[in-house]
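Input/output pair, single chain:
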Amino acid sequence: MMNNTDYQVHESSYIDDGVEIGVGTCIWHFCHIMTGVTIGRDCRLGQNVVVGPRATVGDNVKIQNNVSVYEGVTLEDHVFCGPSVVFTNVQTPRSAFPRNTSVDFAPTRIKTGASLGANATIVCGNTVGRHALVGAGAVVTREVPDYGVVYGNPARLNGWACECGEILELVDDRSTCSHCGRQYQTLSDSTLSRMPEFPSSDVA
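Output:
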């Protein structure tokens, strides 16, 4: 690894000019980080990761091997991208009629805490909600709600997940995570909300 006072980059990787990389981030073999990229603190980029011009990666993001994060993609804090996750940024690509300016790109946002399973494809122009789980091999063609569990082709909502990643079991539209105790309630068939914490018994 090439040691920087703030972050680490393997000697086989390329970091273009005009890139911002946060403290504690580690970039492994054969990666390419292009001009205008911002990468936050404590991130891990596996082998053969490409981050395209002006893409944004938040803090504590894990990007596994063979992922290309193209221009127009934003990964918020604590996002997990499994091996070979696929992003796109043009909805109607043509080789003979290049759409290669920022105006042509349909932005994609992966919100805080969301996880994308191995080989999932995220079609551009969509948002994956906070703490959502996208199953391995899923093809996301529409918005994914906060805490939503989606899988299939096209990906469909098949349940809910806690912030900690446990699958939630609903009883009368409410759920308490069996692992961490966080509580949730459904507001509609496609909306789950985390309930406020109850004060402890020793608080007046």
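The CA atoms of residues 5 and 147 lie 37 Å apart. The domain at 2-94+101-168 is CATH 2.160.10.10 (UDP N-Acetylglucosamine Acyltransferase; domain 1).
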